[in-house]
Amino acid sequence: MENRDLVDSFSEFKDEKDIERVTLMAILEDVFRNALKKRFGNDDNFDIIVNPDKGDCQIFRNRVVVDDGEVENENYEISLSQARKIEPDFEVGEEVSEEVKLEELGRRAILALRQNLNSKVTEHDNTTLYKQFKDIIGEVYSAEVHHIRPKVVILMDEEGNEIVLPKDKQIPSDFFRKGDTVKGIIEAVELKGAKPQIIMSRTSQKFLERLFEQEIPEIADGHITIKKVVRIPGEKAKVAVDTFDDRIDPVGACVGMKGSRIHGIVRELGNENIDVINFTNNTELFIKRALAPANVNKVVINEEAKKANVYLALEEVSRAIGRGGQNIKLAGMLTGYDIDVMRELNPEDDDVELKEFKDEIDEWVIEEFARIGLDTAKSVLSLSVDELMKRTDLEEETIENVLRILKEEFED
Fold first, then answer.
1. Where in the cell is it found (predicted)?
2. CATH says 136-201 is which class?
């Protein structure tokens, strides 16, 4: 293989990988210098001229002319008689520059050159790929399904880069076929040996946030800010948004007319139910908003324990909790508080029969109230202690204890 042959073989890599000219020359020179070090022990007296555009490469060894018989290091010195075979007018002390042909390095060295060249190009390619995707971690990316395995989907982008979408990074309802275009975020770039592994995610909260940025112009231009995103992938999500512009309704802008703006996001996420909420620094109000669609009557906060008791009408409890507890779980994640739902009975609510309290009130006491026609909690609470003492044979302490129990039921 001649010098030019090696450059030609390198050009194949250049065309395929689109390596810059400067990088190409640096890699080629490095390959040659490694070979020269192995053959001659050092390369600091060699000049390497690479012109990859023309497919040309030349190597010159520079040595000082010394008298015959006084050569101590053949790599740095050349005898006068040998120098005059190159040019007859050389004198002692002058420098001789002599071209080195690849065949002088030996067959094994030439094969090693080729292997080293392959290795350097692959190393460069992997380094470039690693840096390229490291810079876009957290950004939305699209690629085509190339191969489907039980625990992972292998994607391929337009440049032929392999991207991995693990099963646990897929939305539960995701179903892919070969050739489908898949969108997600680049979540991580990991080195598996020398080759980087690019990992995509569709379950990340960041993916939902990026979709909002793409679909909602007011978020993209900074007029609306996403304060926090929480989600149960494929099921339900809550997004808290805020704005510094009083003229903008952040929730309305995100949802759009009849849900026109958010519909595309919902469809991309496998019909994930998305609640968009107005952010506020008022913790009590934020918790109330986070529990939507439930209407909360009262919130009692324990700031030290990061807990909140929320009081709701009976018919609102199931809305606050949500299917499988999803709504209250996401509300807790969004606000940062451990939320407990407490049933609150209003005067307009249905009454409670006294027999429902048999675990707390003795049965004979319940029968005494029933004797005078008081068989519900509200009917007892409607009368004063004095009135109840006149109409029953119960003592004041017993009546007060009963009233306390009944009042707690209506408060809690």
1. Cytoplasm
2. mainly beta
Q: What are the tens digits of pLDDT across the range 312-321?
A: 887 788 888 8
Query: Is residue 185 packed enough to be buried (19+ CB in 10 Å), middle (13-18) or exposed (0-12)?
Result: buried
- Identify each DSSP E strand in 38-169 by its residue range: 46-51, 56-66, 77-79, 95-100, 140-148, 152-156, 162-166
pLDDT tens sequence across 382-391: 788 888 888 7
Reduced to 3 states, what is the DSSP secondary structure of residue 228? strand
If residue 329 lies in a helix (H) or strand (E), which one and from where to where?
helix 326-335
Question: Measuring CA to CA, how many Å separate 374 from each of 83, 160, 168, 314?
Answer: 128, 81, 59, 24
3-131 to CATH, choices 3.40.50, 3.40.630, 1.10.287, 3.30.1480? 3.30.1480
What is the model's pTM?
A: 0.62
Q: Which fold has domain 280-344?
A: GMP Synthetase; Chain A, domain 3 (3.30.300)
Report how far residue 179's alpha carbon sits from residue 44's, in angstroms, rounded to the nearest whole number.
53
Residue 223: CB atoms within 10 A of its CB come to 16
- Strand runs (DSSP E) across 253-294, as ranges? 273-278
How far is CA 122 from each of CA 32, 84, 118, 279, rounded to the nearest angstrom?
17, 44, 6, 50
